[in-house]
Amino acid sequence: MSSFGDKGYKGLVYKVAVPSPLRRIFDYLPPASGEKIEPGTRVQINFGQRKIVGFVISQADQSGLSKNKLKPILTVIDSEPTFPDKLFRFLQWCAHYYQHPIGEVLNTATPVKLRSARALYQEVSTYHLVGSFDDSQLQALDRAPKQKTLIDFLARRKNVSKQEILDQGYSTSIINTLKHKALIECFQTHADKPEPFPPLIDPSPKALPLNQEQQLAVDKIRSGGNAFNCFLLDGVTGSGKTEVYMQIMADQLREGRQCLILVPEIGLTPQTVSRFQQRFNCPLSTLHSGMTDNERLGAWSQARDGAVGIVIGTRSAIFTPLPNPGLIIIDEEHDGSFKQQDGFRYSARDLAVMRGREENVPVILGSATPSLESLLNAQANKFTHLSLVHRAGGASDSITTVVDTANEYLESGLSEQLLFKIDQHLSANNQVLLFINRRGYAPVLSCSQCSWIAECDECVSQLTVHAQPPSIRCHHCGVAHHLPNHCPQCNSATLKTSGIGTQKLEKYLAERFSDYPVIRIDRDSTRSKRKFDVMLEQIHSGEPCILLGTQMLAKGHHFPNITLVAIVDADSGLFSPDFRGQEFMIQTLVQVSGRAGRADRPGEVVIQSRHAAHKALTQLTQSTYREIAQSLLDERREAAMPPFSQLTLVRAEGSQLRHTMDLLKRVNEYAIEIIQPSQSQIQVLGPVPAPMEKKAGRFRSHLLFKAETKSSMQQFLTQLVYQLENIKLSRGLRLSIDVDPMEMI
Ligand code: ADP
Ligand code: ZN
Ligand code: ZN
Q: I want to staple 66 with a disulfide (CB 3.0 to 4.6 A). Which of 7, 360, 513, 716 is the partner?
């Protein structure tokens, strides 16, 4: 430690984190009230010209600043920390691991309504006698009988509010006099803090008798007791993972312990919630992005007070305070929405494991298509691998065929063979699902006379044609223009669309199969929740229909009457520039395929591709997901890519490409200065313009670091980030660090 010299202040200071991109925490003097402040407590402070809310991180007995530079904490907002001790430590760990400023991490974990100086609870003051005082002090009261009788009164009672004292006929000045003489003291206590939820006596009267695989999984999880253990529940769609979750939850709810369940963003449907509500007679909170700030505060507070036994939420619910946690579940753990893609770029799945460790509770990661990261953790015995390979309730597996479309004439993207099958399944009174991962009408608008193609001015991207309303839209920045009827370059009127989106397919199917309803599910058609509910109702009615849609269909929904699932175009995923492209594609295809078939109606899956001989596709027809994942893992090991190495992506964004590249070159120089002398095994790749060089009018560049182990990456980043504080960013330039990046476009 360097000495602070003579100018430093010697005395108690609190270190306060503020919500700002600065990685520093700031010293403040204790508040005038002199009260002690626990770490994790919200305080109000003067910061620059503003009054803001910060969090006390720790205290120290000296500061590098002189006393006249130090300001006091203005008010202590709550009499207790916002986050329980373990959660607070966890949040600090998160800030460190993701190299994100602690103030912003704490802010992320705090409901918007508490980012202002609003108190957690309404508080009341109660009065008590101080622990001990000597007789001389009491004797001194002989001449003040009123004060003496108040002492006697307080000696007989506990938690007496000021109002009760006033009601007894004492005045405020008598109270203050005794306080001043240090004979009585005042505490703040909480009003109406709710009671913890009562342990469930018979938590699951509706539990199903488990099949053998489920029983084995439940037994294994139970054998770990209530301590931290991580389980990978690897079970095909419909294998009854949710039943396993619920039986383990029942164990915890019986003991009055809380269960936290994280689901993908669009997996949190009313159906998901009602499944848990119907099973458990237990108060439950949901936390998701569609809530108002007040609703969110309410749900968060109930969880924090222990008033609910079950918390179901999306990504950010991983930060929910739980006074009595018993279990953490991540459903569909492979899902990309668990990774936050901007600001504080955490992975809720990875954090669940860390939080489980900190709270010492079991963690269950469930998926039909586990991520390669989790599979490797299972192979390395860090996670216990539990397999459910059969569908519960006896549904049979489906048969997969790949249709080679290379030399076929396609009707709106559909081959003769597929059209025939659609007809067949509909005639047999079944439902059909067509998956096409492109919303809009058509992905390309071009001119037949010249080379013009509709492109976004703000992004390196083509504009998608939309039918309702007629327009061309950018799916990256959201910009929309009228659909032109003449080429802006040569003025010819021969504009044509190519490629197929959900809207074009919907139009074609509605004409061709006019006897059946066609239900399109994508981001555009489901904007209204009411409309979406109507669609889901129609599907659940079981009447024959054609269901067509994007990624949204691949997640969480159970459509038991679907017997044919078709992947209209598997090619876009085959040649992705992202090293995770194949993993994502296979996961999506397997998830979509999993929607087909049930006990009495075996399912069929059709995959159309112009590259039918591609290894990834032939594997799909011949192998299980587990086998395909293993071959992908082998490839990753060969290439030393995650999960066999650790990546960190530094992104720069600015109004000119050159500025972003220059910035990353400087970052690179700092990196080399750290890497060379320590001979650390960090590889540097770049800087290079990002694959999507321009997005929403901003230019983007990438610099990638690769390390063998998490700890060497952490060590390096800690030093790097410290150095980066020296860089003064010129206006409009932004620098961000993404530890364990998911999307690298
Ligand atoms: P997953 O979550 O693995 O996709 P679910 O838990 O949703 O699977 O189960 C699929 C279906 O099988 C549900 O309708 C569920 O009620 C049923 N199911 C699950 N376990 C059993 C069981 N042990 N016996 C009978 N039906 C079961
Ligand atoms: Zn033209
Ligand atoms: Zn755009």
A: 7
Ligand 3 centroid to Cα of residue 474, in Å, is 5
**Residue 2's pLDDT is what?**
44
Among the listed residues 318, 332, 328, 331, the one whose alpha carbon sits nearest the alpha carbon of residue 248: 328
Structure tokens at 208: 């199903």
Classify burial at 110, counting beta carbons within 10 Å of its beta carbon; exposed 0-12, middle 13-18, buried 19 or more.
buried
Closest ligand 1 atom number to CA of residue 214 = 23
Q: Is 210 in the pocket of ligand 1 (CB under 6 A)?
A: yes
- Contact yes or no for 499/443 (Cβ under 8 A): yes
At CA 94, angle to CA 304 and CA 719, rounded to 5? 155
Encoded amino acid at 356, one letter: G
Nearest ligand to the C-alpha of residue 449?
Answer: 2
Q: How many Cβ atoms sit within 10 Å of the Cβ of residue 652?
A: 27
State whether the beta carbon of 393 lies less than 6 angstroms from ligand 1: yes
Backbone angles phi, psi at 255, to 5 degrees: -95, 10
Please name every residue paired with 286 in a beta bridge, in sequence order, or none if there are none: 312
Cis previous bond, 196, omega within 30:
no
Ligand nearest to the CA of 480: 3
Which residues is 385 bridged to in the sheet? 232
Instruction: Please indicate whether residue 238, judged by its CB atom, sits closer than 6 Å to ligand 1.
Output: yes
Residues with CB in 5 Å of ion ligand 2: 447, 449-450, 452, 487, 489-490, 492
The tally of CA atoms less than 13 A away on the side-chain side of residue 447 is 17
Interval between CA 597 and ligand 1 midpoint (Å): 14
- Residue 23 is given by DSSP the state -
Phi, psi values for residue 523, rounded to 5°: -60, -35
* Residue 269: Cβ-neighbour burial (10 angstroms; 0-12, 13-18, 19+): middle
**Could you tell me the distance, in angstroms and rounded to a whole number, from the CA of residue 211 to the centre of ligand 1?**
10
Residue pLDDT, tens place only, 262-314:
999 877 777 788 889 999 989 999 998 888 899 999 999 999 999 999 999 99
| CB of 438 sitting under 6 A from ligand 1 | no
> For ligand 1, is residue 291 a contact (CB within 6 Å)?
no
Cβ pair 13, 28 in contact under 8 A: yes
> Measured in angstroms, how far is the CA atom of residue 446 from the centroid of ligand 2?
8
Q: Residue with structure tokens 């009261």?
A: 141
CA 23-33-53 angle, 5° bins = 30
The reported pTM is 0.86
Calpha distance 250→53 (Å, rounded): 39
For ligand 1, the distance from its centroid to the CA atom of residue 68, given in whole angstroms, is: 67
CA-to-CA distance for 641 and 455, rounded, in angstroms? 34
Contact 740, 338 (CB under 8 A): no
Interval 176-200 mean pLDDT: 80
Kindly report the protein residue whose alpha carbon is nearest to atom 24 of ligand 1.
393
Please give the structure tokens belonging to residue 587.
Answer: 């996961």
Is there an atom of ligand 1 within 6 Å of 235 CB? yes
Q: Give the span between the Cα atoms of 191 and 159, in whole angstroms.
A: 12
Q: Would the CB of 594 count as within 6 Å of ligand 1? A: no
Distance CA 14, CA 4 (A): 17
Phi-psi region of 381 (alpha: psi -120 to 50; beta: other; left: phi over 0): left
d(CA 95, CA 368): 31
Q: Which atom of ligand 1 is nearest to the CA of 368?
A: 3
Q: Other C-beta atoms within 10 Å of 22: how many?
A: 14
Helix (H) or strand (E) holding 563: strand 562-567
- 662: part of which helix (H) or strand (E)? helix 657-678
Is the distance from CB of 267 to CB of 313 less than 8 angstroms?
no
Which strands sit side by side in the sheet containing 646-654, from one edge to the other? 683-695, 698-707, 646-654, 734-739
13-27, 460-474, 545-559, 727-741: segment of lowest average pLDDT? 545-559
Q: How many CB atoms lie within 10 A of CB 682?
A: 22
